[in-house]
Amino acid sequence: MNAFKAYKACVPIAWSPNLYISLVRGIPGTRRLHRRTLEALRLRKCNRTVMRWNTPTVRGMLQQVKRLVAIETEEMYKARRQKDANHCALRPPLVISHLPAPAK
């Protein structure tokens, strides 16, 4: 199982009022029905995330395009954003001294 399938497999079943949907596969080469569904979800480019209410209509649309999207609950989305922010955080500068080492 590759990393993407493992990521999709760990999506929790817990109810959340909002769903965060990311387009992870490209649109070219997909069926017209799938393209229209992605357009209705307002997913236009890869690696873009939109927030939608957790309603039966939206869940039915996601069922149609489940191989093209990754679905996260609100808690998962916030945790991922925090992890990304920590990864990109500023680090203290590296100080390099070009002076010769002191003699002992």
From TrEMBL:
Gene Ontology MF term list: structural constituent of ribosome
A Pfam family this chain is assigned to: Ribosomal_L30
Lineage top rank: taxon: Eukaryota
Cellular component, GO annotation: large ribosomal subunit; mitochondrion
A Gene Ontology biological process term: translation
Domain Large ribosomal subunit protein uL30-like ferredoxin-like fold: 21-69
InterPro entries: Ribo_uL30_ferredoxin-like_sf, Ribosomal_uL30_bac-type, Ribosomal_uL30_ferredoxin-like
Gene3D superfamilies found in the cross-reference section: Ribosomal protein L30, ferredoxin-like fold domain
Keywords for this protein: Ribonucleoprotein, Ribosomal protein
Family indicated by similarity: Belongs to the universal ribosomal protein uL30 family.
Protein name from the UniProt record: Large ribosomal subunit protein uL30m
Species name: Juglans regia
Protein encoded by which gene: LOC109001829
